[in-house]
What does this fold into?
Amino acid sequence: MTAMAASHETPLARSVARFDAPAAALEAIARDLTRQMARGLVGEPSSLKMLQTFTRQPSGRERGRVVVVDWGGTKARAGLVELGAGGAARIVAEEALTFSEGAKRGAPEPVFDLIARAVSRVVHAQGVAAAPLAFVYSYPARLERIDRAVALASTKGWALTGLEGQDVAGLLGAALRRAALERIAVAAVANDTVAALMLQSYQARGRDPGARPADVGLILGTGTNLAADLGPAGIRNLESGNFDGVAAVETPYDVALDRELDEPKPGAQRFEKMVSGHYLGEILRRALGDVGPRAAAGLAPFSLDGAHLSRVAADRSVGLDHVDALLRGLGVASTLEERRGVRALGAAITRRAARLVGAALTGAVRFLDPELAARRTIAVDGSLWGGYPGFEALVRETFVELLGGERAGRIETAYVKDSTSAGAAVIAAVTAAQRSDGCSSA
Ligand code: BGC
It folds into this structure.
């Protein structure tokens, strides 16, 4: 592939080369992100919302049983989590829900009712009559308190009618009451990036009370986003999927995709549209049109996703048999040539995504520590990070390019797999501790 990218002689090589993201462009992106964080924080115009989270780092000594709801990707989950000694967070029970495309565009109440019924099944099966509930709502929301979160425009293909401007904790609370769960009370609402950050801190401090907490939380799955602990300004949800400083590495495919989607509307979630699992396959489908028009024509919009790209990258067979099977599963017959195109383009698109993530993380870490004087920990979760072969290595390569080997070596990436529910329980437990201290911190 590198050889092909170097000689731009074939249409495939030309398409692959479009996804290059040179270090100089990434450096400018990292600097822009740092600047936009500063602006967002003081309320100046910025594509980064820097939303308050109303939680604080855990001590590692939090305990208890918490009912959790995780809603933010292709699935939602209701569960029960138990926090124990040594940073243990055990998922006692969990039930997953999927939503039809119609449900994603309908009224909010039926969705909240589905979730409340799943909560009901979990708590009844576990004999839980009363418990605090932590709600991870992984779409943009402006928290006004730990248990009040006003929905902003949705992401990842959701467009519920009339949700914007409503308090999602209130909507869940009402659905719980409709399901006769008056004693299951929404105690905390959080973003998944914050849950990842908090779980990493809780696990590290549970094992060693003197351990440094995580500095940054990153989700890289269906969507993408960052949270960061800004010290006196508290833990903030950047909503970095909306970062708009990406024009230097945009291709015509990205521009068209951004323009043609209704939700998120053109100009919104531009970073996410180039980086996350919900979009990477769609960029590939569009780019494929230039090299394998026949295969591309058979693929429906958004039929390819991040999981498909991971499977394509993992195919080591000479005939690209797994790619063949995958395309057949989507109703498309392909030639070996076309499959090679799918593989080379998928790799180029994902490599660019990883490099953009590396640049964004560099910008965020520099905001906290411009010289990277101290060690910094990034807690990461999400299907793309966990599932795409070699993704982390591509991100680390970017750290070295932008920061040099020594500073890059001070950044630790900790993969906290399936962190959302467990992290949510930590947040609810921290909230309970904050309440008993009489402390309320942003
Ligand atoms: C949402 C974020 C979320 C991220 C990862 C984005 O689309 O706006 O709130 O953290 O996806 O799930």
Notes: Residues 275 and 353 are 5 Å apart (CA to CA).
